[in-house]
UniProtKB/TrEMBL annotation:
The lineage of its organism: Bacteria, Pseudomonadati, Pseudomonadota, Alphaproteobacteria, Sphingomonadales. The keyword Transferase applies. The keyword Transferase applies. This is Succinyl-CoA:3-ketoacid-CoA transferase. It holds the Pfam family CoA_trans. It comes from Sphingobium ummariense RL-3.
């Protein structure tokens, strides 16, 4: 059985990065972000990137790092709020944006991994989302055709992984990560804990190792809280 573990993020990424590539990056808000792999992409200096991700991190964190270094040419995303740099670059025409309803984005990625070139959905019918896209009537309702998403590279984050590339995600950090692992030519996963072969219960594996090409132990596990709301504690 092949051992897919690499010693560090540089070794796992340096020979697959190139200008103009398309990268899928897991995460939802700041949950499940590939925190250790993104800085290595920045350090590599590759440019003209198309990045597929639910959002582009938060100010000073996550994919924001690649926006700040002007390495991203286009974002294919669902949520672009609360990232001032993203907003500034888009409004100035510096950054291209393909905005998707969140469920449509998830299904486009899943379709890419499943080998389904296109599908129909009611989401977005009659809005700017449907402009320029074919539509069709099914059972009296109009549907818009959406196409799959695939990438040169997927960078994802998991909780546990074994030498064969089997992955387990922790709670909501699963989000887009498993689907992205299936939809890229090369998938690199950073994991918080690397376990021995056979240590993962097969029934608990979320992403089979067949979809994962390389694994590296994460060095950044900040688990930041994107928004913290507090109130005074009530008197006893």
């Amino acid at each position: 059985m092949a051992n897919k573990i690499f010693g560090n993020a540089y070794d796992a990424l340096h020979d697959v990065l190139h200008d103009g590539m398309t990268i899928m990056s897991g995460g939802f808000g700041l949950s499940g972000n590939p925190e250790s792999l993104i800085p290595e992409i920045r350090a590599a200096g590759v440019r003209g990137l198309t990045v597929i991700s639910n959002n582009a991190g938060a100010d000073g964190f996550g994919l924001w790092m690649l926006l700040e270094s002007r390495q991203v040419k286009k974002m294919i995303s669902s949520y672009v709020g609360e990232n001032k740099l993203f907003e500034q670059q888009y409004l100035s025409g510096e950054l291209e944006l393909e905005l998707n309803p969140q469920g449509t984005l998830a299904e486009r990625i899943r379709a890419g991994g499943a080998g389904i070139p296109a599908f129909y959905t009611r989401t977005g019918v009659g809005t700017v989302v449907a402009e320029g896209k074919p539509t069709e009537i099914f059972e009296g309702e109009e549907y818009v055709r959406e196409t799959w998403l695939r990438a040169d590279l997927a960078i994802i984050k998991a909780w546990k992984g074994d030498p064969a590339g089997n992955l387990v995600f922790r709670k909501t950090a699963r989000n887009f990560n498993p689907n992205m692992a299936t939809a890229a030519r090369v998938t690199v996963a950073e994991v918080e804990e690397i376990v021995e072969a056979g240590a993962l219960d097969p029934d608990c594996i979320h992403t089979p190792g067949i979809y994962v090409d390389r694994i590296v132990k994460s060095t950044i596990n900040e688990k930041r809280i994107e928004k913290l709301t507090t109130r005074p504690r009530e008197a006893a």
